[in-house]
Design goal:
The chain has 2 helices and 3 strands, in the order βαβαβ. The protein is α+β, with helices and mostly antiparallel strands. The protein has helices at about 20-25, 40-50; strands spanning about 5-10, 35-40, 55-60. The longest helix is centred in the middle third of the chain and has 10 residues, at about 20-25. A 3-stranded antiparallel β-sheet has the order 2-1-3, with no helix packed on it. About 15% of the residues are buried. α1 packs across α2.
Length: about 60
């Protein structure tokens, strides 16, 4: 896991569990269709897994 991940928020966190809203915030996402780049680490992968129904992920090299 030595690369970057492009994370795109595809669905709103409104009405979701508080922990999911906080995870979206911890990833650095603030609005729909926002794209961010994060390092590919086990911690980031775990956060993505928790909110996988709200985000889309693309692996960058």
């Amino acid at each position: 896991m030595d690369g970057k991940l492009r994370i795109i928020q595809k669905r709103s966190a409104i009405g979701r569990q508080r922990s999911q809203r906080l995870t979206i915030k911890a990833l650095g996402l603030k609005r729909l269709n926002q794209r961010i780049i994060q390092p590919d680490t086990p911690q980031i992968r775990g956060m993505i897994r928790k909110v996988s129904h709200l985000v889309e992920t693309v692996e960058d090299c």
